[in-house]
Amino acid sequence: MTAEMPKPQIDTSKPHPARVYDYLLGGKDNYAVDQAVGAKLPVEARAAARQNRAFMRRATAWLALSGIDQFLDIGTGIPTEPNLHQIVQEINPKARVVYTDNDPIVLRHAEALLISTPEGVTDYIQADVREPRAILEHAQGFLDFSRPIALSLIALMHFIPEDEKPYDIVGTLVEALPTGSYLVLSHAASDLYPDLVEQVVAQYKRGGITLGFRTRAGVTRFFEGMDLAEPGLVTAPHWYKDTAAPTEEESGGFDSGIYAGVARVR
Questions:
Q1: Has this prediction a pTM greater than 0.85?
Q2: Are 143 and 69 in contact (CB under 8 A)?
Q3: Which of 9, 192, 224, 266 has an alpha carbon 20 to 30 Å from 254's alpha carbon atom?
Q4: Residue 28 has what pLDDT?
């Protein structure tokens, strides 16, 4: 870590998306309130979480192999190895990574686990995606915004409902990136498995978490003005490049309700 971090208190009275996600992945960094939400989600939610994480690994590795050596990951979540910096710094030890999340428990793990290679940089900011300019201001101290950067928004924007202007948030972040940068985004679908969506949204709502699942057209809108890399916007298990397709075992035998895409900034 490259900077001193505050010690905000962890609120264990309310579930948090990062901790529910950790529960779905089989992690141990969650509390009873998070488990209460996760345990009542349909079984497909666990497969979707694994597929989403696997998409992140494939997309990140492809970008690093393509020469991208700067990454801004917003909505980091609780570290589940391999982490983004481990993937990219194994390919390029000089890669620079800035993580961002708004859950204090993620901050505590970041201090202990998100350690850079000697040649590279790994930094962390406790911040919320709803404040994109604050994130950019911090990131500009560690990343060179005159060179391409990969912006990673993995399973994050479906926690931002329409009244919080999700497209404006992403637009502000992308606008700050130079030509040749990339947006890596995955997002829960509202139009693939309507019955499952209804269960998931209702269960999160009982925990006080509002979801804004979107149609394929709604997710595509995040990539407006950019060039989607092949295979375009697809469900998470179908996004792969220069590697074999994920096996049925890896995907849990279920084609996730998660749209995934990678797009180049013009």
A1: yes
A2: no
A3: 224
A4: 84
Are the CB atoms for 261 and 223 separated by under 8 Å? yes
Cβ-contact 218, 208 below 8 angstroms: no
DSSP string across 106-153: HHHHHHHH-PPPSSSEEEEEE--TT-HHHHHHHHTTTS-TTS--EEEE
Is the distance from CB of 101 to CB of 75 less than 8 angstroms?
A: yes
Structure tokens at 78: 């609780």
Phi, psi of 149 (to 5 degrees): -135, 140
Q: Which of 71, 22, 31, 73 is nearest to 50 (CA)?
A: 22
Classified as helix, coil or strand, 65 is helix
pLDDT, tens only, 29-56:
889 999 999 999 988 888 888 899 999 9
Distance CA 10, CA 144 (A): 32
